[in-house]
Amino acid sequence: MRRSLAISILAALGIMGHSMTAGGQLTSGKDVLDAVTDNDVDAAQIQTLLSRDADIDARDEAGRTALLIATHGNRIEVARVLIEAGADVNAKDRINDSPYLYAAARGYLEILKMTLAHGADLKSTNRYGGTALIPAAERGHVDTVRTLIEAGVDVDHVNNLGWTALLEAIILGDGGECHQQIVDLLVKAGADINLADRDGLKPLQHVRSRGYREIEAILVAAGAM
How far is 124 from 108, CA to CA, in rounded Å? Predict the structure, then answer.
């Protein structure tokens, strides 16, 4: 099946000598979606498709654009071609993922930086009501957290669970070195170290209940109560 898909894409590109659609132009984005899905099709070939008037922000059955599909696979050069051609870095699928949000959540730093340079909406939120910073903090993506803080993402945004990035880093993190660095970054960025969750529990209480001594020291030094 993958061989058949690759053949059809190569045919659309004209590489195998097949003709293009009427007038030599693509009239939909399906070929681009198929191409990005196939790892055997490279960035240069996708760029050729885009030069033939393909719909760069066409959606698949899950509501994903070609750029979001490329982001899922961390296909940096493919994403670069799409973004530089004008792909929408904020286009969301049916579960509210966008290339920007997904790259941040997965720690795909190069793609994230490209989305930030091309109009990423820092206030956009995922299906949990969280900004890009919150899942990045939870999952221990230190460089991603640093990049988002420098970009100006709200460090005290509260998601649908009632948690900030700081709370998620503590509650869902493992207390290890990466999460220690993230807590330190958030504290230095001015995160509210005493902002409680919906149950009234503050970050320091969560830290102490989990025995995360290094993070406790960071919060106490910053004046947490």
Answer: 18
Runs of H (alpha helix) within 86-176: 99-106, 109-117, 133-138, 142-151, 165-171
- Enumerate the CATH 1.25.40.20 domain ranges in the chain, comma separated: 1-121, 131-225
Task: Measure the CA–CA gap between 65 and 161, rounded to whole angstroms.
Answer: 28
Residue type, 18: H
Average pLDDT of span 5-21: 43
Tokens 């001015």 correspond to: 190
Percent of the chain with pLDDT over 70: 88
Q: Are 143 and 178 in contact (CB under 8 A)?
A: no
What pTM does this model have? 0.89
Question: Two tokens at 7?
Answer: 């053949």
